[in-house]
Amino acid sequence: MALIKEIKLSTESYKIFINENIESFFKKNKIGQKYAIITDDKVKKLYAIKLKNELQKNKIEAEIFSFKNGEKQKTINTLETLANQMVEKGFDRKDAIIALGGGVVGDLAGFLASTYMRGIPYIQVPTTLLAMVDSSIGGKTGVDISSGKNLLGTFHQPQAVLINTNYLQTLSQQQIKNGVGEIIKYGVISSKQLFEYLEKNMQNILDLKEENINYIIKKSVIIKAEIVEQDEKESNIRMILNYGHTYGHAIEKISNYKLLHGYAVAIGMVIANKIAVEEKILKQTDSERIKNLIKLAGLPTTTLHKPKLKDLLSDKKKEGNFISFILPTKIGEAVIKKTQCQ
Q1: What pLDDT does 340 receive?
Q2: H/E stretch holding 339
Q3: Active-site residue 249, yes or no?
């Protein structure tokens, strides 16, 4: 067990651990009278049943509530179904939620926690690389609607984030690469050191070598946590974390969410780089270097269906008649550029 970072916000704080024994954590920290383990059908079979049994061995009451795996299930209908099931099982405001799964589970379970009986605590237990380095940290919750991704949601910070890299052993290479897409983002916007580490160690990372995986997870978590500390509600600097996402979210939607998030963000980063080169704020050599790292990770750099302006207009990063693009100025730095919709 190791503490990676304590996020200190104006009204609360919480800790992010790596390779914490989850059962021991809940023995030492009573966050709820009983726990609703929110998960999907795949993670239920892999980990949720085992976690429930371990908690019950320690006289900690828990129930599992699951839904079908996939982004297409991240809807208000799924949210209502889970809430009704929790009511039927007698969960109240003294109880808590454990979000056990990837980004979809974390977003949905966090939104459920923020709204169930006007808000109950929750703990993030991410099981994918993407969730470990990104979606489990910072308190963003939400569901998708027909108009776009994460357009209904709240900011609701977890009580803790418990990262266990053993969960990565059951991930496909596709899902590992999905997480690496977000890690490349951190290198481009904030850390040349991380970027160069990825260039030198990509194959070891894809092979889940312990030293390399632990390093990139810790580095990514610290980068995101420090940005969240500065701007919890994404009113300013936190928007920089959306590098690659303005186009990325639109690309996901056009694919009917068949393209994974990290893959779409990879393409979005390449498009953002092209804009930055055209704006003369990024050197072509840096743009090519970023593109080469994306290719090295086995991620896509082009799409047959590049989003049009209308596809971007439903994005959360739109303010009035302006869309915010996050553009790198060099490897390790980026700026927020507001562009008027034509």
Answers
A1: 67
A2: strand 333-340
A3: yes
